[in-house]
Every structure is written in C-alpha cells, then in structure tokens.
C-alpha cells in the first residue's frame, strides 16, 4: 500500500517521533464519526433523564440488630426506632419469623423429648424427638401443614403435643403481622427477608404486601429447582428483589429479568466495627450518589450515640448530593436498538481511521484489526458490547496518533476521547449493566491497548526489519535503563490500581484524601490528574530525545482514564462527567504550570555552571 500524498507537518524539534499519515479518507471518516455520534448523544440525554428520575434511596434499619441494641440499654425497640426515624431512617428490614420466635412471644411451648420425658416420666415420649404444644389456641396444630416433615399428635401428661422428628426451632413460619402493622402505622417502608428451607411446602405463598424482598444466604429461594424458581418469580408479584452489592445470589438473575432490582448497599458487621460513623456515612453517600444504590442497609453501632452520628451524617451528605430519602420507585432502563445500531458506525470508523493514520499503514491496519477482533472475542461476539470496548481502546489513542506536534493537540485528543465517551455509553449501557449485573469486559485493555497503539505509531516510516535491527544495535546507557525501569514500574502501578482490589490498593493517607474530596465534591481520578500534565509536557517538546515520547504515553493514560471512568455504567452519567471534567481542569492547569517549571529548571541547569565561571 502506498503512503498518502499529503503527510502532516513535522513534529516540533523536541520530539523524535514520526509525524502521522494524513490519509485521503481522514476527513470522510471523521465526518462519519461525528454523524454516528448524534444518535449516541440522543441516547446519552435519555440515560441522564432516566438517572435523574432515580435519585432516591431508602435508609433501611435491620430490625433484629435494633432489638438487640434496644434490649442492651433497657429501651423499647419501637421507641428507639422512632429516635432513629427522626434522624432519617424511613424503612425497616423484617426477617421472616421462625418457630423459635413463636416460642419467644408465648404462642407455643417447645420441649426436647429428653426434657419432656424427664418432667413427665412418660415412656411414650421419645428422647430423640421434639414436642410442641399451643399456648395460643391452634398455633401448634396449624404448623405441620406448612412442611413436608412427618409429625403426629400425642397425649402426654393430659396435654396434646405435636411430635417432630427434628428440631423445628428454625423452621420459617411467615411474617409477624402484628409487628408489621405497627411499623406501617408509624410510616415505615418495609423490606421483607424470607428464609429458604426445603421443608416448606409453598414458599412465598404468605409473603406480606411490601415493596422489596431481600433474600438471605447465597441463593434465592428455589434457585436449585427450576419449577420452584418459576413459582417464586410469579409470587413476587409487584415486589422488587434487592440486589446486594458484592454478594452474588444464585437464581437472582432470573427474578431480575422479570421484576428489575433495587441495588442495595450493606456493610459487613465486622467491617463496620472497624469504621467510625463519619467514615461509614461517607460510604453510604458514595453508594447512593455514585453507584445508584437504592436501599442503604444500616445496622446500629454498639452505642446509640454512634448510631445517631452515623444517621445524622448520612442524611446530611445525601441531602447535599441531591438524593431524596424516600421509598424508591424502581424503573428499568430501556434500550433503543435502532439508535444503538446507528451508534455502531462510529467506533468502527474510528478504528479504521486509527489504522490508516499510522506512519506504517500496513502495521496500523493490522493493529486495528487485531484490536477489533480481541474486543469482540472478549465480549463473546456481542456487537454492541464489542463496539463499546472498541470505542474505549480506540478513541484515547486516536487523537495522539492523528496529531502530536504541539500543546494544542492535547485539546484535539481530549475532544476525541470525549466523543468516544458517547459511544461507550450508548453501546454499553443496558438494563443489566446499569444494575451492575453485566460488568464492562476488558477494563484492563482500556489502559493497555491505547498505550500499545500509540507506541506502535512511533515507529519510523521505514522497513520494520531495519527498525528492529536499529533497536537491537542501539547503544544502551545506564540512564536509559533506569528511565525505562521507572516508566515500567509506574505503568504497572497504574494497571494494578485500576480496581483498587490488589495489593497495590490505596494507602490510609490517600483514602483520607479521597473521603474528604468525595464528601465535598465528586472526586476526580488521580490517573487523569497525573496523566494529563504528562501529556501536555510531552507535547510541548520541552524535554529532548525520547523523553517527549514517554511523556506522551503518560498522556495516553490520562486519555484512557476518561473512557475508563465512563465504563462504570452503574455510575450516573453526570457523576462520571463531573469527575472527568474536574480531572481535565486540574490536569490542564497542572500541565501548563509543569511546562513552565521544567523550562525554567532546564534553563537553570544549562546556564548555572557558565554563570559561575563568569563570576569567577
């Protein structure tokens, strides 16, 4: 393939990378990208409208934990709950009753066979069985019909007992209607937590009229039996299942497909004890504001004062964030297939333009084809998800492949990255992805591939074999080795820190800075605040030799982080936009300052010795 007739002007003297090719198709492909961005922009507006209508959350108090705290301090649970209600709690999580609860309320009397035989001396009592009789008429007699466990009525000491072959203490018996009525009368929204037990004949048949169901354990009721799961799905009715973050529950996806889901944020009790109330409140606020959590599940601290501090701080932060504490109304996110299909054109055109803009066009087209194929394979050949990943790896590289001769080219690169944001959102945001059920596949590639693509575009316009030979025979200085090792270490840190889930997680100091930032405004990403200044400094041509190329690659990390920010579809689009533009603003200012500081430092370095000699 011949080289295009009109190459771009040469780079500034400080840079040693070749100028990109200006292919005749460049304006046409750019026009195609902009046209395809129009349906993506329409979809972005629709997504923002949907997310703005969903800015509500409920503060849900765990009722058993509340009862434990109230009894520890000799207080009435409902009275203590009223105190917490005045500080923002508007919902209560009620667990399904078990037979043991009936005994605690004085409705039944449960005895082991060994104890009953010791008391009565009746030889007919089996020490291995358990015996239940009613204190409230009819309660014990009605229970066997709920279960598949064989029971029988026996007479012991002139009283009628129900004999159970196993301990029935923890068998679920449905809701406590009296408690639920009391809570509803006090204005609380209720979240019901049913138990799963294979012995229950008709699970879900007596669920109360509540808006949300939050399942216990690692699977929903009926997850192991398709027929039973179908019954549970039907018996949910208008109730919405709760989706607990970082707690996958088998079978929940089936229920969500029909009923949607309420994203739920809950903190492990052991972890909560290691956090002070102010820190925990910040996490609840972050969950509601930036992760679209609709149910904020709260457990009290050991003391009432700590719990009050948690609730007061949480409600204050939610108010500042514009999140209304009320009963959430869950509406599913609707996808527009036609507009998404039209948006497919943009990433494909961008990928082709990227390949055609390499100094070595054959290499560029090969790199573009490989990137596209890898994106599709990673997304199981889903065209929309694959194109979203193509956009995420192409647009951060495209601007710095097209133009990299001066500082103003940073604005071109940033504009193209922001255009790519529209395609990532349009193609990747679905009903499942906004719930966090379908994560963005290829997050690591969004940081790695743009770097490789831009680095490959630095290869000189000559036979690739000659370039390889030149690199092999190039003399390497110790300084070169140290610089390359430092650059590799920095990139490795950035790559490992992409999810804060590895050994390279944030330090305590950085965590404190992050908390302070996110409590006052949307926290920008540190990769952008560092990457953008590096890119600006590299494009300025201030540093000689390959330093400029290395700094431009640092700028690619900043551009990649823009797309990476918007790949978290459960984060509202406007929140991601605020984070992005804060990072751009801070990075631009820091970069312009860095250029002047480096120029001044280099001038001082070059002139200091000469000035000393003159003075001598």
Automatic annotation (TrEMBL):
It holds the Pfam family DUF5693. Keywords: Membrane, Transmembrane, Transmembrane helix. This is ABC transporter permease. The chain crosses the membrane at residues 25-45, 348-378, 384-403, 410-428, 440-458, 478-496, 546-569, 581-602.
């Amino acid at each position: 393939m011949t080289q295009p007739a009109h190459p771009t002007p040469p780079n500034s003297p400080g840079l040693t990378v070749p100028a990109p090719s200006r292919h005749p198709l460049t304006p046409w492909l750019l026009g195609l990208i902009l046209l395809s961005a129009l349906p993506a922009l329409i979809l972005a507006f629709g997504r923002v409208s949907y997310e703005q209508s969903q800015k509500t959350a409920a503060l849900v108090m765990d009722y058993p934990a509340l009862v434990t705290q109230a009894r520890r301090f000799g207080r009435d649970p409902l009275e203590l709950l009223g105190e917490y209600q005045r500080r923002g709690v508007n919902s209560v999580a009620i667990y399904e009753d078990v037979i043991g609860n009936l005994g605690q309320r004085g409705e039944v009397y449960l005895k082991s066979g060994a104890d009953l035989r010791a008391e009565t001396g009746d030889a007919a009592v089996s020490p291995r069985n358990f015996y239940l009789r009613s204190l409230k008429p009819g309660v014990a007699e009605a229970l066997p019909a709920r279960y598949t466990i064989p029971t029988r009525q026996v007479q012991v000491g002139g009283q009628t007992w129900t004999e159970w072959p196993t301990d029935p203490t923890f068998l679920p018996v449905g809701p406590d209607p009296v408690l639920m009525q009391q809570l509803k009368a006090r204005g609380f929204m209720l979240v019901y937590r049913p138990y799963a037990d294979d012995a229950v004949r008709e699970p879900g048949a007596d669920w109360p009229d509540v808006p949300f169901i939050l399942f216990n354990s690692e699977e929903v009721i009926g997850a192991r039996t398709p027929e039973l799961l179908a019954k549970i799905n039907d018996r949910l009715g208008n109730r919405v299942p709760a989706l607990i973050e970082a707690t996958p529950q088998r079978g929940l996806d089936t229920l969500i497909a029909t009923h949607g889901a309420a994203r739920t944020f809950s903190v492990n009790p052991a972890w909560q004890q290691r956090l002070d109330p102010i820190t925990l409140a910040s996490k609840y606020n972050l969950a509601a504001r930036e992760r679209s959590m609709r149910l904020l599940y709260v457990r009290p601290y050991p003391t009432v004062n700590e719990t009050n501090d948690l609730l007061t701080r949480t409600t204050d932060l939610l108010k500042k964030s514009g999140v209304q504490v009320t009963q959430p109304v869950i509406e599913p996110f609707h996808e527009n297939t036609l507009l998404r299909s039209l948006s497919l054109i943009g990433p494909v055109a961008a990928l082709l333009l990227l390949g055609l803009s390499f100094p070595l066009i054959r290499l560029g087209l090969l790199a573009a084809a490989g990137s596209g194929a890898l994106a599709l394979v990673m997304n199981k050949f889903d065209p929309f998800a694959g194109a979203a990943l193509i956009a995420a790896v192409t647009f951060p590289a495209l601007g710095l492949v097209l133009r990299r001769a001066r500082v103003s080219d940073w604005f071109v690169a940033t504009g193209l990255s922001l255009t790519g944001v529209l395609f990532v959102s349009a193609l990747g945001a679905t009903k499942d992805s906004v719930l966090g059920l379908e994560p963005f596949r290829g997050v690591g590639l969004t940081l790695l591939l743009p770097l490789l693509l831009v680095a490959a575009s630095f290869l000189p316009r000559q036979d690739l074999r000659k370039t390889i030979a030149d690199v092999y025979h190039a003399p390497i200085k110790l300084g070169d080795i140290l610089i390359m090792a430092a650059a590799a270490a920095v990139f490795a840190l950035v790559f490992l820190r992409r999810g804060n889930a590895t050994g390279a997680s944030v330090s305590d100091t950085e965590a404190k800075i992050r908390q302070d930032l996110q409590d006052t405004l949307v926290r920008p990403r540190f990769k952008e605040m560092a990457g953008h200044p590096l890119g600006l400094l590299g494009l300025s041509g201030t540093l000689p030799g390959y330093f400029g190329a290395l700094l431009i690659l640092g700028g690619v990390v900043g551009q990649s982080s823009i797309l990476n920010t918007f790949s978290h579809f459960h984060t509202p689009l406007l929140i991601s936009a605020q984070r992005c533009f804060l990072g751009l603003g801070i990075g631009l200012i820091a970069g312009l300052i860095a250029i002047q500081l480096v120029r001044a430092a280099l001038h001082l370095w070059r002139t200091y010795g000469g000035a000393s000699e003159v003075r001598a």
